[in-house]
Amino acid sequence: MFLIILKSKSPFAKSIITRTCTKPGRWYSTTGNKHYDIIIAGGGMIGTTLACTLGKNPLLQNKRILLLEAGKEKAWALPDKYTNRVVSINPGTHKLLNSINAWKHIENNRFAIVKRLQVWDAVSDASITFGDQTSPEDVSYIVENDLLIAAVNNELKQLDNVKVQYSAKVTDYHLPEYHESSSSVRLDDGNTYSCELLLGCDGVNSQVRKAMKVNYLTWNYDQMGVVATLNLSELTDSLSSLVWSTTPDHAKELLKMTEDQFVDAVNNAIWKNYGRSLVVDQATKTFDTLLRLMNCPSDTVRQFPPKIAKIEEGSRAAFPLGFGHAVNYIGKGVVLVGDAAHRIHPLAGQGVNLGFGDITCLNRVLGNTVHSGSKLDNLSYLKEYETERQRHNIPTMLAVEGLHRLYNSDFTPLVLLRSLGLQATHALSPLKNAIIHQAAT
């Protein structure tokens, strides 16, 4: 399976491969009140994986964990056709899933390995390549969302210290004030649960984050991501997953098209000849010659994408794109994880990997907290999680944001800047390796 990412309607970059607080007394007198050491608000890929990871941590084996899942419990079976909701997971995420024995379930079903990633500019000859078909190192792995969740759930069901509450509709969160030691969560069925540590994994519209009242930097891109499963015409492994970021109006047009019209639109976006600048062409050719004289790698051989033959019926969908970042990931008795803390543009396929990186870090921090004899809500230890993850997440988010803005312009000086930058990055192995390392963790 390939992953194809398109940006338009200015597709200048292409690449192959989202308290109300009542009186404190009421929270603890409600019928059905139960106490847990950790409550995880929100399931999905991040919440479910976090619950399984913490549940399997030997240092946390005596801690009672509750996962609140808004959806209903349902049996999962591998569908005949690939679904259109897939993620590109990096080696760090792959290592995490292996550590909790979830990867074996994915491996026994289906996934695709990305050995080589190529990015090129549509209005110049500049390009960059990561990985190699013959290398033992994998760039990433394409996995269906539902399969990943099912794989983690298979392991989660074996844990006695983790309880999953399905159809859990949260109505209120109460976070501890100075004189309190527990957080409380009230459900619409009247039950109230308290905990020493509340972990917010409830997505971009996180109610946990809102209860924390932290500053949240956010904006919309005025773009939609159109996804689909495509059939390629020139490869044995003929399936490809498409993510096409474009304007809302254009996204609506793409969703309304017939399947043949949609295939033509994708092929046109990939193969269309966009207006080029003689200045940019001459500068990139001169720079390429200079790199050759200096014995630096030059990516003059470009692997062009195959033609799209057809689209899998019913696989088209769209979702809004935006940016978001919480100034603080932690508070008294509460931690934000995944999209609840940060949200980025999908052009680099790094959004969900940032969340899985949060899980790896938080699991280690909480284990160290318990090992030292401290309480789970010890702010000194939680601050380690916030500091480490922000030092990783913020540079990644800024880099993706910069790329998004840089490749949304056809202004000649900017085209020249990004083209030379792409060539230089490909030629300078230490710089390219640093990018690979940042994206892989």
TrEMBL record:
Query: The FAD-binding domain covers which part of the protein?
Result: 36-392
Enzyme superclass (EC): oxidoreductase
Biological pathway: Cofactor biosynthesis; ubiquinone biosynthesis
Q: EC?
A: 1.14.15.45, 1.14.15.46
Q: Which InterPro entries match?
A: FAD-bd, FAD/NAD-bd_sf, Ubi_Hdrlase_CS, UbiH/COQ6_monooxygenase, UbQ_mOase_COQ6
The cofactors named for this UniProt entry are: FAD
Q: Where is this chain's protein located in or outside the cell? A: Mitochondrion inner membrane
Keyword Mitochondrion appears in the UniProt entry: yes
Gene3D superfamilies for the chain: FAD/NAD(P)-binding domain
Which GO terms of the cellular component aspect does the record hold? extrinsic component of mitochondrial inner membrane
UniProt entry tagged with the keyword Plastid? no
Annotated keywords: FAD, Flavoprotein, Membrane, Mitochondrion, Mitochondrion inner membrane, Monooxygenase, Oxidoreductase, Ubiquinone biosynthesis
The function of this protein is: FAD-dependent monooxygenase required for two non-consecutive steps during ubiquinone biosynthesis. Required for the C5-ring hydroxylation during ubiquinone biosynthesis by catalyzing the hydroxylation of 4-hydroxy-3-(all-trans-polyprenyl)benzoic acid to 3,4-dihydroxy-5-(all-trans-polyprenyl)benzoic acid. Also acts downstream of coq4, for the C1-hydroxylation during ubiquinone biosynthesis by catalyzing the hydroxylation of 2-methoxy-6-(all-trans-polyprenyl)phenol to 2-methoxy-6-(all-trans-polyprenyl)benzene-1,4-diol.
To which protein family does this belong? Answer: Belongs to the UbiH/COQ6 family.
Question: What is the protein name for this chain?
Answer: Ubiquinone biosynthesis monooxygenase COQ6, mitochondrial
Protein source organism: Exocentrus adspersus
The major lineage groups are: Eukaryota, Metazoa, Ecdysozoa, Arthropoda, Hexapoda
